[in-house]
Every structure is written in C-alpha cells, then in structure tokens.
Amino acid sequence: GSFGWSTGEVLSVSTSMSTGKSTETYQASAGSYTSATFTATDDPWDPAYDAVVLIRGPGPLGPMLEAYEPVLQAATALDATVLNKVNLIACPEAPGGRIVVAPTGPVNRDIDDARRVTEAAERGMARARAAGAANPLLVTGPFPRFPHALEVSVLGGLAACYALIQAPKEKRNATYSFGVWVPQGTDPDLEKAAAMESGRIVCRDIIQSDPMFMTPAKAAEYVETIFQGSCVEVTTKADYKELEKEYPCLAAVARGSVQWPPHMPRVVRLQYTGAGPITRSYFWTGKGVCYDTGGLDLKVGGIMKGMLRDKGGAAAVAGAMYALSKLRPAGVHVTGLLGFVVNDVGPSAFRPDENVVSRAGLRCHVGNTDAEGRMVMLDLLAQCKELALSQPDPHLFTVATLTGHVIRCYGEGYGACIDNGPARRKRFGQTVQDVGELWANPFEISMLRREDFDFIEPKLEDYDVLQSNPGPTSATQRGHQFPVAFMIRGSGLDHHDIDSSQPLPYSHFDIAAQANWPKPPTGNPVLCMVQLMLQ
C-alpha cells in the first residue's frame, strides 16, 4: 500500500539452544514495523546483556535473586529513594556493569493490581534506554498475588519500545531488543505477550494518527494491509449508496463529509474461524470516528482537541483481532465490524430533530449530533445480532470512546463494562473486571437500569427511540448508561433479552477513559479483549 506497510507473517517465534540456556526469541510487530524483539533466558546475570532492569516489589527477592540483595542494600544505604523511585546503580558484577532498579511500590493492599508491575517495567526499560543500554535484561521479582506478573512486566517493557506511526523515521525504524529472565520451573506465556503487544501496536497506530493521515479510507487501507496473508478474512465496503442501504445511521453521520473522497466512510469486516468444531462466537463492533467535530452541535471552546482518538473502539477491535490472528485459538469464531467515518460540518450534515430509520426499522430521533458514536455502531450491532442467531454460544460487543461521562465516573485509565440481561446472568462483567485486574487493564462494572430505557422513550409519536438529549453526556445523569439502552433498542436487541426465546448476551465497553489523551496511547483495551476470547 501507499503507506509502505509490508504484508505476511509479522509475529515470529524462533527457538535455538545454547549452553543449557533457553533462548526462545519473540517479536512484537505490525506490518513493516517491529518495536522490539525479546529473548528468554534462565540466567538472571546473563552476560549477553548490557544492563539489568530489576522490577522489585516491597518484599524479598527470593532465593533465585538473592545475589541482588546485598547490592540493593548497599545502594539503599547511600540513597533511600532506591526504595521508591527508578534508579541506576553501578554494579561491576552485573551485565553491563549497571542495574536499573524499578520499584513497584505496594502490591498487597486492597487497591493494588497488576498495573504496579507493568508500570514499573515501562519506567525501568525507558530509564535503561535513556542510559544507553541497547540490550538490557528484564528481571522481574516474585509477585505471588499476580499470576501473570512476568507477562505484564514484559508488556510494560514492550510499551517503552513503541514509536508512534508518525514519529520521525529514525525512531519508527529503530528495533529494540531485550532479554527476559524466566525462572526455572515456570512457564509464562511469552508468545501471548508478544501477540498482545502486536495487537496494541495496531491499536496505537490507528488511534494516534492525525485525521489527515488516517482518514476513513486510509484506516481501511491500514487494516487491509496488516491482515494480508493472515488467517483473518477482510472485506471493505466503500460505496456510499450501499452503506446508506445497509447502515443508514452510520451513513447519516458520514453525510456531512462525503463531498471529499478521502473522508468517505468505510465499513471493514474482519472474520476469524479457528480450527475444529466451533463452540464459541464473538461479535465485536468498533466505533471508528476518524475525527469528531461534533457535527452541527459543534465542539467549541477548545474541546475538539484530541478528537483524533475518537476512533479508539475500531482501533481496539482491529488490534484484538490482529493478536488473535497470531495466537490462532481453536474452536472460536470471531467477527469484527469497524465503522470508519468523519463527523463533519457541512450543508448535508445530519442534524438535531432528524429522524433516521435504523437497519432494524426503528425511527431514531437525533437529539445531538455530537452523540454520533452510538449512531455509527447501531446498525453494525444490528448486523451482528442477525449473524449471531445462527452461531454457537454467541456474545456481542460494542467498543467505543463513547462518553465523557464515563471519565467523570471512574477517572482516567478505567474502562466500563455494561451488560444486558443475558450477559449479566453469566456474570460476564465480573469476568471482565477479574481479567482486567490480572492483565493490568482495569474495567469497572456498570449497570443498566430502567431509567436508562425511560430516558430514550419517544416523547412524540413520530419516532420510536431517542438518540440523545441536547446536552453533553458529562453533564447528564447516567450519561454513559443510557446510550447503551439506545443501542439495544435501536438495533432490535431488546427482542433477545432474558425473557426471549433466543437471548443474546451483549456487553458494551466504554473506553473513553482509556484513550489516555493527551498522554501517549496505551492500546490497553486489547489486553482484556484478547484474554476474554481465550478464556
């Protein structure tokens, strides 16, 4: 493609054996971009490396790392900040003669989770690179509370190696390497960590690319290119007349931008079918608003800044599918629908007071053009519903940087999972929260209530469902919950609730608080999404 993205296999795992050491090497990459390779070793003092990055908890390092203890004690006697800040210590016996100590802080309180480990690893790896280390060794101490401590530590190290897709070429073209100490007798899933990071690269590439670099057309091209030669089938729909017919609510949002060809909407369908009998099915819908001006309800007062990340839902779905294409789980069918649009201002832009008939045949009354994300996903969700009825054990999802309200509720970094009745009966939200705690990607459980459906009830007889009130969600009671009620009603999913003959579990992930603006993008929703499909 015009971007120069390569095709073919992009996650390599090679194995060789030397003098008794494990030397499995893994690669995290997407297309022609490789952020890092890492190699497993069972020697925590392996001389092949030029620094040690030691991820240290508040407790003892244990018998396998006891040789580090006197070094740390001596350093702490000179500088007490070794206990709570990243420090570089000179140590002639260590690889490269230096140790970067990255303390996690407390890990055993009620409020601690695996982010303690991954954040320490990211800080430590960044410090080692700043010191000039070209090939450091990541050594993670014991964290009994976190069963995936080593994997999330590796993910933190990998995050420190990523360069943005529009970074200067010398940064984007650089490939970093590091070692990972794997204690004898343990079996961490480093292949999964590499695949997850590859998925996070895709997510970050899409979400943090400027609106002219990653228009709907170019976003579709990026997705098509990275999946070429993979086990994921990709289909793109670009004809606006066809989109109007199949996805009328998405087409309405895109109407204000169709005069300029690069802003023409795209719907990208991704499909993966694992080997063997299919026992589980997942259907992911991702909001891909490549830029959100607010439409005729224009974002003013500087709040439009950062809206390049309003494509985070589609970015997360693409990233999760990409990771899945590397892991190739058996018995699983997965469909992803990505809706790439621009919510623009123009004479043909959709407008408040307009009634748009959805794919499911319901008249949706537009209350606010800056509530476009639920419109983009509505008909994609309806299509997923249609497909799911013939698949075994289906679960439907929408993923979106949807509301400012969820940030007000839970703060930066936290996703919200909102289940319908059939999903709640499975206690799916609790599963999401538990997975997020273990994989450093926290989610909160949010509940649908009767007030959410009361909110979207028609006030007049000329429409069936209310899309939004005129005000911002951040200033609206239950501002991140009622949009889910709208998507359930507008897609016809309310005919598949707990008292129906064909109940369909459905969960909405509001990841607005995980977009991380204005800080660097994390791609973290990919971690939870991938693990949920591998459970």
TrEMBL record:
Keywords: Aminopeptidase, Hydrolase, Protease. It comes from the Eukaryota. Gene3D superfamilies: Zn peptidases. GO terms for molecular function: manganese ion binding; metalloaminopeptidase activity. GO terms for biological process: proteolysis. The keyword rRNA-binding does not apply. Residues 368-375 form the Cytosol aminopeptidase domain. This is Cytosol aminopeptidase domain-containing protein.
